[in-house]
């Protein structure tokens, strides 16, 4: 338990603790004023305010630069997006042109192969017709030779053979 001693007696006495505390406080304030502490505190506060103001100005400048940079990047992004869209459009157009060219080339190739096949068929048909005609002529000649040999005498046969040779020679050449 603590005991509190209260000041008793007159106020302006060194026995009065309240007066002694007041004197100590006034001496302390006087020392602070003599040492120029308030001016130093004021100058420190002014310097701090100036530094904060400079920091705010720098932050404002940096913010403006950042906004300018952001606008620049947004503009570049839009340009790149537009370029990408134009590249995609050009690629689609090129692909469509290539597809059309490939389709045209395929149609030309099919037409050429169809014509070649038709020509081969026509050639084979002509060759087959010629073979049939040759075979028919050979058979006819053999049959005629057999009939002539059986029904005609040697003199008539020789005359007909000579006439037939002349006739065939004239038709072949």
UniProtKB/TrEMBL annotation:
Subunit and interaction comment: F-type ATPases have 2 components, F(1) - the catalytic core - and F(0) - the membrane proton channel. F(1) has five subunits: alpha(3), beta(3), gamma(1), delta(1), epsilon(1). F(0) has three main subunits: a(1), b(2) and c(10-14). The alpha and beta chains form an alternating ring which encloses part of the gamma chain. F(1) is attached to F(0) by a central stalk formed by the gamma and epsilon chains, while a peripheral stalk is formed by the delta and b chains.
Swiss-Prot/TrEMBL keywords: ATP synthesis, Cell membrane, CF(0), Coiled coil, Hydrogen ion transport, Ion transport, Membrane, Transmembrane, Transmembrane helix, Transport
Gene Ontology cellular-component annotations: endomembrane system; plasma membrane; proton-transporting ATP synthase complex
Source organism superkingdom: Bacteria
Ion transport in keyword set: yes
Coiled-coil portions: 49-112
Transmembrane segments: 19-37
Record's bilayer topology term: Single-pass membrane protein
UniProt-annotated location(s): Cell membrane; Endomembrane system
Protein name, per record: ATP synthase subunit b
The protein's role, per its UniProt record: F(1)F(0) ATP synthase produces ATP from ADP in the presence of a proton or sodium gradient. F-type ATPases consist of two structural domains, F(1) containing the extramembraneous catalytic core and F(0) containing the membrane proton channel, linked together by a central stalk and a peripheral stalk. During catalysis, ATP synthesis in the catalytic domain of F(1) is coupled via a rotary mechanism of the central stalk subunits to proton translocation. Component of the F(0) channel, it forms part of the peripheral stalk, linking F(1) to F(0). The b'-subunit is a diverged and duplicated form of b found in plants and photosynthetic bacteria.
Family the UniProt entry places it in: Belongs to the ATPase B chain family.
KW Ion transport (keyword) present: yes
Gene behind this protein: atpF
Record-linked InterPro entries: ATP_synth_b/b'su_bac/chlpt, ATP_synthase_B_chain
Major site of localization recorded for this protein: membrane
GO molecular function terms listed in the Swiss-Prot or TrEMBL record: proton-transporting ATP synthase activity, rotational mechanism; proton-transporting ATPase activity, rotational mechanism
UniProt-listed PANTHER family: ATP SYNTHASE SUBUNIT B, ATP SYNTHASE SUBUNIT B', CHLOROPLASTIC
């Amino acid at each position: 338990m603590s005991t509190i001693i209260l000041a008793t007696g007159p106020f302006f006495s060194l026995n009065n603790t309240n007066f002694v505390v007041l004197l100590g406080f006034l001496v302390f304030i006087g020392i602070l004023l003599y040492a120029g502490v308030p001016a130093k505190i004021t100058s420190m506060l002014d310097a701090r305010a100036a530094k904060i103001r400079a920091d705010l100005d720098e932050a404002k400048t940096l913010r403006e630069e950042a906004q300018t940079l952001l606008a620049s990047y947004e503009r570049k992004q839009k340009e790149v997006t537009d370029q990408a869209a134009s590249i995609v459009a050009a690629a689609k157009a090129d692909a469509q042109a290539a597809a059309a060219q490939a389709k045209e080339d395929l149609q030309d190739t099919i037409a050429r192969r169809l014509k070649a096949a038709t020509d081969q068929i026509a050639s084979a048909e002509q060759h087959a017709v010629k073979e049939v005609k040759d075979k028919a002529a050979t058979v006819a000649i053999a049959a005629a030779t057999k009939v002539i040999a059986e029904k005609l005498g040697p003199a008539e046969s020789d005359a007909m053979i000579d006439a037939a040779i002349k006739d065939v020679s004239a038709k072949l050449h």
